[in-house]
Amino acid sequence: MSKTLTYLFDPLCDWCYGINQALARLVESTGVALALLPSGQFSGNGARPMSTALAGHAWTNDLHIEQLTGLPFSTRYRDRVLGSQQPLDSTLPTLALTAVSLTTPCREFEALQGLQHARYAGGQNVTDPAVVAALLEEMGLAEAALGMQRPTDALQAAHRSRIDTARALMQQHSARGVPAFIFDDGQGCLRSLPASLLITQPMHFARQIHGISEDELDNLL
Fold first, then answer.
1. What is the number of other CB atoms lying within 10 angstroms of the CB of residue 60?
2. How far is CA 205 from the centre of its chain?
3. What is the pTM of this model?
4. What is the four-CA torsion angle of 60, 129, 10, 136, rounded to 10 degrees?
5. What pLDDT is stored for residue 104 in this prediction?
6. How many whole angstroms separate alpha carbon 7 and alpha carbon 18?
7. Rg for the chain (alpha carbons), in Å?
8. Is the pLDDT of residue 217 over 60?
9. Is 182 helix (H, G, I), strand (E, B) or coil?
10. What's 46's DSSP letter?
11. Quick one: which of 10, 193, 199, 200 has its CA closest to 210?
């Protein structure tokens, strides 16, 4: 059984956007299997209106994340997303990612990165069905885009099931929010790994996955 890193996320979580580049490098360099589970943190009862105070807090936090990671949070995003007072509601982009997971599962992480880049760098409204469908089309995910036009009962059920599974894992491992990681070592042992390590100590994060020394990891990477 292979080692699997389960990534618990929300597509409208700015820290989830911030760690995606480091996560992509980790997966590419170590070969660990990546499983995505949306937590629904900002959907359903977790959705909230975008107030002036919340927008200001988000922008300050986003600039801090940009400084740490180098990923851009554009003024277009500040003006068109935060400044437009559009609700913080991840229901639609989360559903879109479930559609990708059902049609082209190997590209779900890529789709997540695409949607988040469109929001945080491009200033696009990824809570708008037409925008999300167009973005999926641009990424060559036409089947998922088509599924979003008239979500089936099966898509809605898969969407709810993934969120339920993510929340159960988070409760089991005392994860208070996203991003969060649950690592399966392939021997039936599951444990949480601090998401902050991907930014502050990525080599240490990789060592915990491999269970090898720093010198051995240097040779591997």
1. 9
2. 18
3. 0.93
4. -110
5. 97
6. 14
7. 17
8. no
9. strand
10. G
11. 193
Two structure tokens written together for 41: 């943190």
Q: Are 42 and 12 in contact (CB under 8 A)?
A: yes
How far is 165 from 210, CA to CA, in rounded Å?
25
Contacts for 202-205: CB closer than 8 Å, 24+ residues apart: 202/22, 202/25, 202/26, 205/26
Distance CA 26, CA 220 (A): 12
Sheet with strand 33-38: strands edge to edge: 33-38, 4-9, 180-184, 190-193
Residue 213 has pLDDT above 60, yes or no: no
Residue ranges of domains in the chain, CATH in brackets: 4-220 (3.40.30.10)
Tokens of 119: 């929001």
Answer whether 151's CB lies under 8 Å from 102's CB: no
The CA distance from 19 to 28, in Å, is 14
Burial label for 76, CB within 10 Å (0-12, 13-18, 19+), is: middle
CB 42 within 8 A of CB 89: yes
CA angle, corner 7, sides to 6 and 10, nearest 5?
Answer: 145
